[in-house]
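fyi for ur records
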Amino acid sequence: MSIENYLLYLAAVGVFFATPPDTSQLLIISNSIRYGLKHSKWTIAGDLSANCLQMTAAAFGLAAVIASSATAFIIVKWLGVFYLAWIGLKLFLSSHASTDLSEPSSKNKVRLYKQGFFTSLANPFAVAFFAALFPQFIDTSSAILPQLIILGSTYIIVDGLILFAWGVAGIQATKRLKMFNFSLINKVSGTLMILAAGFLALKDIEPGKP
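which gave:
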């Protein structure tokens, strides 16, 4: 892979993220508002772990299987919609204070990780997206695996930085919300998750941005 091709790929990935917050990013904002950026890093880790699995699936050709089954797309998609909506509704209706922000327990770390992991994994478009994206920048005259590792690692790094930036935005929102009360924080967080569920529900059954 030439440096020119790599820079073109980097620019393409940047364009993909130059949009309003998507499902995973709204989840990061929500958890940053409730728990702080130190805690929401576990959600980011879960999201990126799911992306790694989706890239691996794409590399082994599962994208063609998934893309050929609209039923599989619909099932995975609506499981994700209901999961996010359920979490959001619970938060919105909750009036008690959030978890202590000093240091997350092991149980809370796992819970936040699972939220990020399953929210990203519930997006049925991601595998097809990676399968469509990577071949555009691969030099078939060179070894394929190293190029896939470079492309995948670059995506993970960029995605992680973007998620971190949205987490910082959530922290800034928290500073403003703290002048009110935890009930309001829960309602804002719950609304963000319900919006994330709505965005996922409105996606067409076609490969697109994960």
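Residues 97-102, 205-209 have pLDDT under 50 and may be disordered. thats all i got for now
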